Amino acid sequence: MARTEQRRTAESLVEAFNNMDIDKIISLRSPDCTNQILPRSIKLPLQGNAPYEQRLRFLQPIFENFSLTVEDILEDVEARRICMWLYAKADTAAGQYLNEYVWILQFDESGKHIVSQKEYVDTVMQKEFYPKLQAACWAQGKKD
User: Fold this and answer.
1) What angle do CA 59, 82, 92 make, to 5 degrees?
2) Distance CA 117, CA 55 (A)
3) pTM listed for this prediction
4) CA pair distance 58, 122, nearest whole angstrom
5) 107 φ, ψ to 5°?
6) SS (H, E, C) the chain
7) What is the pLDDT along the chain (144 residues), one digit of tens a residue?
């Protein structure tokens, strides 16, 4: 079965993250794309492209050698949606970053642009790791 356009876009998104090519990441999003980090209990606001890009540029120097590995991918062509289960790793001032994500991507009719991204994160890891990362960054003079 041939890969759909939205599948190629999703794979391009992972590749762009693996290369930390923020311009490419943003180019795969529609102008009004939103990003929501979940679960809602962590109370992070819905982000449009500008704040999402700003967050990525802030995090880029903190997470060295960032890479994503796709563990599983589910696609609903008719609904223009893809769900990806990903493992992330990177080197940081606080040690190795290991996390899991589930991305739910909604695409435009062409399949070339993401119109909505919901990103579930491992909240246990977040709770344990981010205070250590913040302390290490402060010690190195990098402020959050």
Assistant:
1) 20
2) 15
3) 0.89
4) 20
5) -115, 160
6) CCCCHHHHHHHHHHHHHHCCCHHHHHHCEEEEEEEEEECHHHCCCCECHHHHHHHHHHHCCCCEEEEEEEEEEEEECCCCEEEEEEEEEEEECCEEEEEEEEEEEEECCCCCCEEEEEEEECHHHHHHHHHHHHHHHHHCCCCC
7) 689 999 999 999 999 999 999 999 999 999 999 999 999 988 889 999 999 999 999 889 888 999 999 999 999 999 999 999 999 999 988 889 999 999 999 999 999 999 999 999 988 777 787 777 877 777 776 554
Using CA atoms, how far residue 83 sits from 31, 65, 77, 140, in Å, is 21, 24, 11, 37
Query: Among 144, 143, 125, 132, which residue's Cα sits nearest to residue 42?
Result: 125
Sole residue written with tokens 């913040």? 134
How far, in Å, are 17, 26, 65, 130, 137 from residue 96 at the CA level?
17, 26, 10, 12, 14
- Reading the block at residue 12, the tokens are 């391009």
